[in-house]
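ok here's Endonuclease/exonuclease/phosphatase domain-containing protein:
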Amino acid sequence: TNFKAHELLIYDDNDISKRIFTRDQLLVSGILDGEKIHIIVNHWPSRRGGEARSRPKRIKAAKLNKRIIDSLFSIDPYAKIITMGDLNDDPLSSSVKDILN
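and the structure:
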């Protein structure tokens, strides 16, 4: 089993030198029932401040998640990947529907 934390970098809209700290995305890869599996554990930014105002943060989290998934598929097109956790969005939200698809 191995793991890697993927850092999610988000900056204040009004001051790009001010970083907003949020949780990283954890990728754990290992063997389950004899097959390699990858699990991405997420806890995306909250909707604090309103859904529309906080949406860009979750969009960035979704894009990072998609990059991780795409990188795994580029190595193995048949990779078994589970992405899970608290996305703080709904299945029809643009972060999930449009980016993660």
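+1. Residues 2-100 form a domain with the Deoxyribonuclease I; Chain A fold (CATH 3.60.10.10).
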